[in-house]
């Protein structure tokens, strides 16, 4: 398992064939800055889809050499998104990235059957954190896509998170399904789901990991807290993956770790045929770079 998220850059740069990122509506300073650094570090190549004049003007203002990129000109936003997604579908590029558009605008095209990128499972946001007070990187889902996941969607979330863990070198990750408390309570559906998911794992319906729950957050990540409450579990206090009960819990965890916990972060959208690079304006430049690298590693 990698120890530091900067190792994602090394992993992405080692591909024999450099991955190409298709940026939909690329006339965005924040996105171009992240891509510039990614290209300089050999993480990827980039094809910029959008208004060619605006893109070139931005690159000039930012003092970035436009020859680093392939630029494909489109005036209409809808046509730009379609062209970027089609390039991924046709194999010209390897994965899409959101430019100056909403996540919904990008995914609504990505999910159209004609492009063949949609799969049966749930697409969700998976984030990897490097937290100064935790001894190893920890993966969390979902903090930005699925509002109130069903049991079936939580299975998909586990599988998506486990796929990242395996790719990063952790062969049998410990998955903690978290909620407000560590006991099954019939009045709290998240605890019931956690117990079912743990049993599904024991019966090999969820593979490649060890799943247990429910856990409160403290006993998922602190062995001392788990021991104090008498919890006996391989996962307790040593989680590699956290499965959140809903988007509110996931989003609060995400922002708390970044803004209060000084965590480094890399995120990608998984569940489709190709990962989707999604960066937020609130993310640091390093987070944007690491998210591109993670998505490339998963492509």
From TrEMBL:
<feature type="domain" description="Phosphate acetyl/butaryl transferase">
    <location>
        <begin position="79"/>
        <end position="295"/>
    </location>
</feature>
<protein>
    <submittedName>
        <fullName>Bifunctional enoyl-CoA hydratase/phosphate acetyltransferase</fullName>
    </submittedName>
</protein>
<dbReference type="InterPro" id="IPR050500">
    <property type="entry name" value="Phos_Acetyltrans/Butyryltrans"/>
</dbReference>
<dbReference type="InterPro" id="IPR012147">
    <property type="entry name" value="P_Ac_Bu_trans"/>
</dbReference>
<dbReference type="InterPro" id="IPR002505">
    <property type="entry name" value="PTA_PTB"/>
</dbReference>
<comment type="similarity">
    <text>Belongs to the phosphate acetyltransferase and butyryltransferase family.</text>
</comment>
<dbReference type="GO" id="GO:0016746">
    <property type="term" value="F:acyltransferase activity"/>
</dbReference>
<dbReference type="Pfam" id="PF01515">
    <property type="entry name" value="PTA_PTB"/>
</dbReference>
<keyword id="KW-0012">Acyltransferase</keyword>
<keyword id="KW-0808">Transferase</keyword>
